[in-house]
Design brief:
Layout: E1 2-8, E2 13-23, H1 24-37, E3 45-57, H2 60-73, E4 81-86, H3 90-104, E5 111-116, H4 119-134
Parallel strand pairs: 2-3, 3-4, 4-5
Antiparallel strand pairs: 1-2
Helix pairs in contact: 1-2, 2-3
């Protein structure tokens, strides 16, 4: 698995683009590193892009673990967070829905998850949510620096 991580807007946003074969331990490791290595108190939006993934091998138990890590990370900082996931492949889309459900089972979730088939739609949704919540200058994809 290859993952490209880009931080934007001085830590307010992160884009993770995955490619190749993604398996459960690697995906859990990527999220665990994100949580451990970066200050998430300023984080407002995340974009997880699985467009270039050719295989997605993750069990339900691993998705549940990913959901628990996600829920725990959302407790760092109390601002509203928006998480857009791009998954054009049917099998990836279905499994990622499990992640959002498991993350949502945790108490105190100050985040909104949405899953899209197209990265452009994901970016547009993020721009809308950011504008509604933080004002017109907060749309990261509409107002790139």
């Amino acid at each position: 698995m290859a993952v490209k991580t880009e931080w934007e807007d001085d830590g307010a946003g992160v884009i993770l683009a995955f490619s190749g074969v993604v398996d459960g331990p690697e995906l859990i490791g990527a999220l665990s590193r994100l949580v451990a290595e970066f200050d998430l108190t300023k984080l407002r939006y995340q974009s997880w892009d699985f467009t270039d993934v050719v295989e997605f091998n993750i069990s339900t138990a691993q998705m549940r673990e990913l959901g628990a890590i996600s829920a725990q990370s959302m407790k760092q900082g109390m601002q509203k967070r928006f998480i857009a996931v791009t998954a054009p492949q049917d099998h990836v889309y279905g499994q990622v829905r499990q992640w959002t459900v498991f993350a949502g089972e945790q108490d105190g979730r100050p985040a909104s998850f949405e899953i899209f088939r197209d990265r452009g739609a994901a970016d547009a949704w993020t721009d809308e949510r950011m504008t509604e919540t933080y004002g017109p200058n907060a749309a990261p994809f509409k107002n790139p620096e």
